[in-house]
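Extended Data, panel c. Modelled sequence:
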Amino acid sequence: MLTGIAFEMGAIIFLAAKGGNWLDEKYQTEKRIFTAIATLLGVAISIWVVLRQLKRIQN
């Protein structure tokens, strides 16, 4: 069960980074700001998902 959590985290962060990269290419930004914001958002979401799953395991 815990290995599934690691794969979920990786998938969420990967998809967020890909989405940010796509936005940077679409709007042709030089500093890759969308990639940075989306990746940080993906990390925050993945941590939230992990904490929620850990609470379910403890109950």
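The two ends are 15 Å apart (CA to CA). This feature is highlighted in the accompanying rendering.
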